[in-house]
Amino acid sequence: MPKIVLSMDGLVLKEIALDKQRITIGRKPHNDIQIDNLAISGEHASIATILQDAFLEDLNSTNGTYVNGQPVKKHALKDGDVVELGKYRLKFLKDTPPPAALANSLEMAYEVPQDFTKTQNTTMRTAAETMVTGFAEGQTATQGVTASGGLSGTNWSQPESDAVSQIGVVQILSGRNAGRELELSKSLTTLGKPGLQVAVITRRSVGYFITHVEGTAFPVVNGREIDAQARALQDHDVIELAGVKMEFYLRAG
Question: Cα–Cα distance between 188 and 203 in angstroms, integer?
Answer without folding.
Answer: 6
